[in-house]
Amino acid sequence: MSRVRFGVLGTARIALKKVIPAMQRGQFTSIDAIASREIAKAREAARELGIARAYGSYDELLGDTAIDAVYIPLPNHEHVPWAIRAAEAGKHVLVEKPVALTAHEARRLLDARDRTGVKIQEAFMIRAHPQWERAIELVRAGRIGPVHAVHAFFSYRNLDPLNIRNIADAGGGGLMDIGCYIIHAARWVFDSEPVRVSAAMEIDPSFQVDRLTSMLLDFGDGRHATGTCATQTAAYQRVQIIGEAGRIEIPIPFNAPADRPCQMFVDDGSDLGGGGIQTIELATADQYTIQGDRFARAIIDDTTVAPPLEDAVANMAAMDGLRTFILR
Predict the structure, then answer these.
(1) Fewer Cβ close by (within 10 Å): the C or N end of the chain?
(2) For the residues of 133-163, what is the DSSP string, one character each?
(3) Which residues are catalytic?
């Protein structure tokens, strides 16, 4: 097998505008089919993106013996049910974040993976971007000394009542949609799990989902992560990693542009005016292309996906904790 043949369950915007085009440029991936509950949507997407086959139901696509794996960009509450059905159909599964609604639900995927023998991975695309790999490399090498704090902000403005991010029953809200990135990034930087968590959460009175959540995660040994996610403010994002001997700043940590180089800053802390800052430029890269190729290579070579599915369960566990210990 030189390429893994993917089918896509659903016609979500992220799939049509970002992930599918990126995977079509991959070295080890091809998009051979797409499905929607409305056949007209599937056919339109297939025509616009040059996909060979369109299906009017997800089960039809899962029955296609020419498909090796599926990418699932469905609403959050549908991730686990369809990932399990895909696994039981013998398809490998790349499923969008967050992988589930709770850690308990996510653990069902561990059982499905072990029972069926397929590979299942949560699609945290930042794991594939060179800027994050470089930042983690610098942290592990001790460039900024022992890290004591990670601070992140991630926001956008979305007031559409029909958008799934604003629908409580679909697993909407800021924490589920973008706060999960902050948690994932902090766990990656510290290479450990939080021992205590708390959050302040503001609920939209109409949508009944969180529109502003600020979180504190205590990783022990004097290591804290703080972050805020918001869905009704100006779009902005930033990550700061602060150590005893310096600081790393990632200006566009999550929605890294695929059409131009990214920059990150390493500050030795010698000058509050910025005199100690080194700018590092990363080559242009599409994190969705790299993500798809790495997942495909794990299938082709029969190796373990990285990070493994257990990491997705751990991320959900931290999110469960934040929703338990909250101030509203």
Answers:
(1) C
(2) HHHHHHHHTTTT-SEEEEEEEEEEE---TTS
(3) 97
